[in-house]
Amino acid sequence: MLLVSTAASVDHDAGANLIGYNNKVYFSTYVNNVTTIIEIDGSTVTTIKTFDSGVYLQTIWTGRTYLPGVVSGGKLYFKTYKYTSGVGSTYTIWSYDGTTFASLFSVINQQSTGYLYPGDIFVYNDKIHFAMGSTSSSISNPGYSLYSLSGSDTTKVATISTGTVYMNPSNFTVLGNSLYFVQYSYSSGSSTYKLKKYDGSSITTLQTSSEYYQPFTVFDNKLYWTKSSYANSVYTFSLYYYDPSDGSSGGGGTAQQTTVSNGYMYGPVVFNSKLVFFKQYYNSSTNSEIVAYDGTSFSTLVDASNSGGYINYSSLFDEYQNRLLWSASSSGSAGNYKFYAYDGSSVYEPQNTTTPPVKLATASVLAYGSNKIISGAAESNDILYFSVKDNSASSDNLAIWSYTIAAPAFAEGYPVASNVSDDNFEIKAKTDKAGTIYYVVLTNGAATPTAAEVKAGTDASGNTDSVAVAGSTTLTAETEKSVSITSSISSGTSYDVYVVVEDNSSSPLLQSSASLIEITTSSTALPVFASGSPSATVASDGLSITLSITADVA
User: Fold this and answer.
1) 404 pairs with which residues across the strands?
2) What is the mean pLDDT of each run of 10 residues along the chain (554 residues)?
């Protein structure tokens, strides 16, 4: 399921914001002061929730895109707010289980509560969490605390800060078993930012800086963020990191820096073990370029001549199935945007492949300008969803599309063993895509190996102790392939054969799990035809045939 949000808090130059849940597509519209949640199930469009007038869906900024909510424990959670004159803003956290909406928590941001404000909701330890507090001196205990939400029960789990100096915490990011975030204070004309950690029981301060922390990204088991400086029309972006394994921090050197002249840099996403960003230039007729940081230094991943044009800050920019996907306009910011992909070696347009994106359904939303925007990507059950907003149309101008890149799939009835004898057998396979089949023959009852272990020719322990035979061979799409296993096989013995297939793309897609074939060899050798047998002789009158068969055993 995906939620597409077009609420007022989202930039006008964006299509929709998505989040995966329940294999359906949901989006919100805000028209005539009313927010509705609409469900798209295939091509069926249904309005499933209409909020009271003046209620807004509050989106969550991740540093790269807006999210309308979060998923935890089989439910979708999101937050709304409504301002009422003389009362204040009411913030409400909701859950949706695929059938029922439930209001779980609500607070009014007004003077009597010290203008309490619940921050963005997020998932930690399989529960919804949020920070809430106030720096108002009008209440007896100003400060901020961390809360968890279980059903409709809200529990304070930790005190983040006390007093009126430190403000609302942000940038909540989970790495390992800990939760990391930043808290800001301003006093006597100077700003202070603190990087803090919550380990499930207490909160500690890890470092203090006078510079703003951009939203965090988990990469290489470290916490990464960017800082920027500006001089003479040039932005210098520097990467910094915190390593929880030893408490060290670093970055900011020349190798961790890249510059943008008359422009800005957005991102990152993690692709091919790199942090990937795009550079956008203020002159929208200048093509964007895509750069990557590999843990050591920056380099150009996709140059300006291959990027497709201008990548807007609200453009689709995401990783999916070992591909980097983005949308760009060859006519600047006011032009129509096209869909592009990079597979690690070349740029291509998914709409021109044999498995192009599929349009699911349309809806009507408010239009701004006259161009066509592609944005709002999210993944659910290995399917990517995105939105296309046509600002030149006043109705049916928001379309939800799906795009699937999948590893090869076995045809029905495959893989299968055949011609099982005392010391050999065959594996037969057929898949919908060309690729390479990998197999391991293990002793009966051995632990199940992962797909990667089968590809590597090992057992579930990563070694070859229980491996009788391992190998690979290529496959042609929709064509049966037989693999003969003729060595290291014993008679009267049971084996577990695990088979997995990977495609031939430049960023190969391996099946997520291996298929099991159970075989038992015969105790004695099967009869073998003698040389020249069988043979057939046609009678001289052409009315009969004599079949001759000679085998090595009776």
Assistant:
1) none
2) 42 65 82 86 85 93 85 93 92 95 92 83 96 86 93 94 90 97 91 96 96 95 97 98 97 97 96 97 95 98 97 93 94 91 92 88 71 84 87 81 90 95 95 93 96 97 94 94 95 97 86 96 77 77 80 64
Residue that is last in its domain, among 344, 378, 405 = 405
DSSP code of 414? -
**What are the C-alpha distances in Å from 84 to residues 49, 54, 89, 104?**
21, 9, 6, 20
Task: Give the integer Cα–Cα distance in Å for 407 and 501.
Answer: 8
Domain count, the chain: 3
CA distances from 426 to 90, 422, 439 (A): 68, 12, 12
Provide the token pair at 528.
């073998």
Task: Look up residue 306 and give its DSSP letter.
Answer: G
Residue 163, CA distances (Å) to 138, 145, 180, 325 in order: 11, 12, 21, 45
Report the chain's C-alpha Rg in angstroms. Answer: 30
Distance of CA 55 to CAs 27, 49, 52, 92, Å?
Answer: 15, 12, 6, 10
Give the residue carrying structure tokens 């990548």: 311
Pairing relation of β-strands 25-31 and 2-5? Answer: parallel
Report which of 324, 212, 215 is spatially closest to residue 278, judged by C-alpha positions. 324
For residue 305, the SS3 value is helix
Name the pTM for this structure: 0.79
Same domain, 91 and 14: yes
Q: At CA 295, angle to CA 205 and CA 312, rounded to 5? A: 90
Residue 376 burial (CB count, 10 A): 33
Tell me the sheet residues that pair with 69. none
Q: Which residues have C-beta within 8 Å of that of residue 513, sequence separation ≥ 6?
A: 450, 451, 500
d(CA 281, CA 130): 36
Q: How many angstroms separate the CA atoms of 209 and 204, rounded?
A: 15
Among left, alpha and beta (phi > 0; psi -120 to 50; other), residue 151 is: left
Question: Same domain, yes or no, for 2 and 136?
Answer: yes
Given a contact cutoff of 8 angstroms between Cβ atoms, the answer to whether 475 and 431 are in contact is yes
C-alpha to C-alpha distance for 530 and 494, rounded to whole angstroms = 28
The residue range of the domain holding 505 is: 416-520
